[in-house]
Amino acid sequence: MKTLHLINSQSLLPIIAYLKLQKLDVKSLLYQSGLPVELASKDCKVKAVANYQYWQFISMCQQQLNRPDFGYRLVKEIKLATMKPIFDQVCDKSLSLYDGLNMLVRLMSHISTHASYGLSQQKNGIWLYGSSVEIEEEVLPPLEQISIANMIGFVRYYLGDNWQPSAITLQHKDETNETCKYFPNSLVTDVQTKTGIFIGKVHLGKINYKFTLENLIGNSEIDIDFSDKLYQLLSHYAGLGFPTIDKLSELVGLSLRQIQRRLVKENTSYRDILNKVKFDTACQELTQTNKRIIDISQLLDYTDASHFGRAFRKISGMSPKQYRAIH
Questions:
Q1: Do 44 and 130 sit in the same domain of this protein?
Q2: pTM score of the predicted model
Q3: CA–CA distance, 19 with 133 (Å, rounded to integer)
Q4: Confidence band, pLDDT 50/70/90 cuts, at residue 5
Q5: Which of the listed residues 36, 66, 96 is the one where a domain comes to its end?
Q6: Which site among 204, 234, 242, 294 is 20 to 30 Å from 181 CA-CA?
């Protein structure tokens, strides 16, 4: 027996509103795809529908409009309305794009009956890909377009409306090159095993200036430790000068006492987190760059290379030079 995957019917409402403007017989299309006709009414009480019925509905709409770019046009016209509540929640509570991507994957796994997104770390960046159940080939093109447009829309929350991914992969054969037309600066490869976009490493640390820890502390479906958030925040200050805990208090809008109390609750301290950030950053610099030891020590706010060496040896049991040699 196949597992029945569900989708929140609320995500269909902006699509139906758009289709009505296109003068389509929405009720007929709903009926033919097996969806409740009452979805077309304002007082609809249907909570969820089967994914395969949603796919069939989207495919039939594309055929009726005879638009090979239907998926991209749909997301553009409804302005990501089906995903906006989810995107807003993540963006309010993420420190950076990388942080937001991980939170998005985690949140979607909680609110969907199957994992909607996944991440694949690469040396020069990261793939954000759709992770879904198998989709029939004839309904795949518009659904992939919707998925790609939504993923790019999420990243644009952080990088601006003109950003385009370095690369895009599609499962279907894009015979009319619709993806290239919408994203001319991206390397598009079709007939692949996954639907995804590639985000360069240079963008992942982009700080979300809308973030405040006050947003994070409130109730949320995303379960994240306070200390993890501080770790990610401090990671952005390598080379810029790490803030003192007093300065951190000003930055995040919390009192010194509030910060210390939450850290004690998680059995850690500001110094412990800062030392971990410095050590992890040092390991990354030693193994992934050719920077001199003295340059790395300056990057991490140590007074000199000797001070850096002592701190590094205290945690790793070896000098930075020895660590680099064996990694």
A1: no
A2: 0.64
A3: 26
A4: low
A5: 66
A6: 204
